[in-house]
Amino acid sequence: MCQNIAQKGVAARRLCALTAMLAVLVGASPPVAGTEPAVVDSDVFLARELARVQPASSAASDRVRAILAKMTLREKVGQLTQLTLEAVTTPQDQMLQLDPVKLRRAVVDYGTGSILNVRDQALTVTRWRDLLREIQAAAGQTRLKIPVLYGIDSIHGATYVKGATLFPQPLGMAATWNPELLLAGSRIAAAETRAAGIPWNFSPILDVGRQPLWPRLFETFGEDTYVASVMGVAAVRGYQGDDLASPKSVAATLKHYVGYSVPTSGHDRTPALIPEITLREHLLPPFAVGVRAGAAAVMVNSGEVNGVPGHVDRVLLDDVLRGELGFDGLVVSDWEDIKKLVSIHRVAVDEKDATRQAMLAGIDMSMVPLDLSFHDALVALVEDGAVPMARLDAAVTRVLTLKERLGLLDDPLLGTAEPAEVGGREARATALAAARESIVLLANHKSALPLLPAGASPSSGSAAKARPRLLVTGPTAHSRAALENGWSLVWQGNREDLYPPDWPTVKEALEERFGSDRLRYVPGSTYDAEVDIAAAVAAAREVDVAIVCLGEMAYAETPGNIDDLALPDAQLRLARAVAETGTPMVLVLVEGRPRIVRPVVDLAAAVVLALNPGQEGGRAVAEVLAGDVSPSGRLPITYPRWPHALRTYDHKAYEEQDTSFGLTAYRPQWDFGWGLSYTTFEYSGLTVEPASAEIGAELTVSVTVSNRGARAGAEVAQLYVTDEVASVTPPVKRLRRFAKVWLAPGESRALTFKLRRGDFSFIGRDRRPIVEPGDFTVAIGGLRAKLALRGGG
User: Fold this and answer.
1) Which of 168, 477, 658, 737 is the most exposed place for a label (fewest CB within 10 A)?
2) Cβ-based neighbours of 49, under 8 Å, separated by 6 or more
3) Is residue 39 part of a domain?
4) Are residues 642 and 750 in the same domain?
5) Do both 627 and 749 map to the same domain?
């Protein structure tokens, strides 16, 4: 069995504790042939995609070994050096010109193996291709002519390619509960990134988003381990496809291994305190299944876990990632994080010491990223014997192997020969479908939505006469940046002037749908300051419905740090003032994390959530409000009611208590998995067969879902398992399966799920997975069924 990760050097470390974790995520059954397209089943999806993975050989090819044998020490270290584009461009040129002197020094003299990033803003495909052509030409001047590996953050589309398709941010994609959509979107992102000549993508984030203050929450797939795992597989498979050397594939990077997303303070790149049971139960499994999906690279946590910075944590990087999870790909540092071992973490006396610690812990490539200090330090360390040549050779082999798998050793500009196809009609249609499915209807008091009857159009006779007069107000109403958030054309995503005008804001999309003559727009407030609330109030008195768009402006990483999840007072005052007019108010929340709206939520007739839905997000919001689309998004996070009540859905039973002496029960604003529709779904006939079985037996869970309403819609059937008694206090429930089901009015569909040993396991007191005999409850759609497991764990 697996060792405690607080211990080192156990010989049989590959016989690991994560085997059982993978069992629950991967399953053992083959894909179900002929699955109807009206159902997307998480288990079937996982089995199908993981069955298609062709594991890369852990042994280096003859070609890679031959190159390695010819390399000098300096050439080897060069391959492990990664610089940002800014390090090789002219500082003041707005056309982003490469500096031939800097480029030659970095690539020819130092043999830099990788370059990343964009200096200021997204570039056209043509400009990207020109830059890559110059960079690879410089690599062609080196003795061994090893191409440069270029990397970029294409986290919700080809975010730094002008004209490319931008999808909902990952948290919004998780709200679709539709991995097939994410798979399709990731394929488009890969093709549009590779069209620019860039073969390496720093995505997906498989950090589980269980700290809602964290400014990178919108980059995660939410708080649940299983959802993050399913969506993670969709992203990896979409990016990499069946062949990394395809001109439509890019290498995926799992990040940020591990524990980055749960900092104690909620601030980016700050310490986390994570019990080992929590680490293994919640945070490691998505990385385990991401490795199983064939991800080519892993990026390391910039923060620290239990006092040990991620970049020097040999137990997590070597014992667990390499040993237990069996990862044999490339491990890359994050931005300047080896230097920060000296300047921030203070676990190294100087950069040379930091480089030694990081290399011995398991880092293969250093994102330096602005100078060549890593190169000089590592050369000296190898010459001194402080870093063994064998460790260096292993890292270089991984870099060369990835370049070979990407086809770069044969064609450094693979993917750039054909005319570029970015932002095409089919890609945009996929982005619109994703945006539509990502919208979550949180509340709909007295059926305030939809604003129009199903199928009505502004020109359809009586429907035209019934069109409401609308006020649109609030800071996110007329902002493309708010719909996109960070990593969109620029790092912070906040350059409104750069977004194409045909990506409509909420206000513009509502004008298109209802007509500008029926809509009045008043800004009302900025993110944190009043502008013209009085004007918004006056306008609200003259319309039928007031649509108040609140939320967040764009941000990324540390600039997005906050200390309070509550919306700024200016936005709350705007909502209160509009509500006091008596005009029905619809709140539209455009945000990347759950900003608290408790003071105004009960004043609203309806509440709609848009988790950074991307370039088609404005149109998707308008369609949902109008009633053209019945919302099918469901929360991938728990939406808190109070600033310090930040418990997740899989909390412990103790947190269910409400007493007169200070215990307050778990009572979020909206629970994980919540979401309404414009139709009504009913569940019936829940059964578990057999209801009593030996541990390890496969169980069949059946249920029927019916659409009892008058219009078509999609429901997300969520299967939860509760362990009634366990040796480690069990959570009240854990999500184990889900399926998205499309139903016509009056239609019913029988769903069948398979549960296996791993679905009943947990991390025990000895830090190993265990299944204990006893009673369990299975719950779907408000129905519950009991089952009993017998035998030893």
Assistant:
1) 658
2) 183, 233, 234, 237, 293
3) no
4) no
5) no
- Identify whether the C-beta of residue 568 lies closer than 8 Å to the C-beta of residue 527: yes
- Look at residue 727 and tell me if it is in a domain: yes
| Residues 6+ positions from 50 with CB-CB distance below 8 Å | 26, 233, 289, 292, 293
Among 7-21, 87-101, 139-153, name the one with the lowest average pLDDT: 7-21
CATH code (residue 739): 2.60.40.10
788 touches 692 (CB < 8 A): yes
* Residue 700 DSSP code: E
Determine the pLDDT at residue 254: 98
Domain boundary among 405, 422, 456: 405
How does pLDDT run across 686-739, given as a tens digit for each residue?
Answer: 999 999 999 999 999 999 999 999 999 999 999 999 999 999 999 999 999 999
DSSP of 388-429: -HHHHHHHHHHHHHHHHHTTTTT-TTTT-SSPP--S-HHHHH
pLDDT tens for 606-633 read: 999 999 999 999 999 999 999 999 999 9
342-384, pLDDT tens digit by residue? 999 999 999 999 999 999 999 999 999 999 999 999 999 999 9
Strands (E), 263-303: 297-300
Catalytic residue ranges: 334
- Supply the pLDDT for residue 93: 60
Do 131 and 212 reside in the same domain of the chain? yes
> What is the domain-level CATH number for residue 271?
3.20.20.300
Residues 694 and 559 in one domain: no
Q: Specify the CATH number for the domain of residue 451.
A: 3.40.50.1700
Place of tokens 């969520």: 718
Are residues 292 and 328 in contact, defined by beta-carbon separation less than 8 angstroms?
A: no
Q: How many distinct structural domains can be found in the chain?
A: 3
Last-in-domain residue among 608, 623, 656? 656
CA dist 481 and 298 (Å) reads: 29
Given 3-state DSSP classes, what are the helix, strand and coil percentages for the chain, each rounded to the nearest 5?
Answer: 35, 20, 45
pLDDT value for 455: 59
What span, in angstroms and rounded, lies between the C-alpha atoms of 252 and 261?
Answer: 19
Indicate whether 740 and 593 sit together in one domain: no
Residue 117 domain-assigned?
yes
Looking at the structure, do residues 597 and 509 belong to the same domain, yes or no?
yes
pLDDT > 50? residue 596: yes
Q: Which structure tokens are listed for 519?
A: 């809509």
Residue carrying structure tokens 């740090």: 561
Picking from 158, 138, 43, the residue whose alpha carbon sits closest to that of residue 717 is 43
* Burial status of residue 342 (CB atoms within 10 A of its CB: 0-12, 13-18, 19 or more): middle
Tell the residue number behind the tokens 């509550």, with chain if given: 566
Within 10 angstroms of residue 608's Cβ, the number of other Cβ atoms is 26
Those residues with Cβ within 8 angstroms of residue 259's Cβ, 6 or more apart along the chain or in another chain:
207, 272, 274, 279, 283, 301, 303, 305, 310
Does residue 620 contact residue 435 with C-beta atoms inside 8 Å? yes
The pLDDT of residue 655 = 87
Q: Is residue 419 part of a domain?
A: no
Query: How many other C-beta atoms are found inside a 10 Å radius of the C-beta of residue 28?
Result: 11
Could you check whether the bond before residue 282 is cis, i.e. omega within 30 degrees of 0?
Answer: no
In sequence order, the 6+-apart residues with CB closer than 8 A to the CB of 491 are: 556, 557
| Region of poorest pLDDT, from 155-169, 292-306, 414-428, 508-522 | 414-428
Judge if 761 and 648 occupy the same domain.
Answer: no
Range of the domain at 565: 439-656
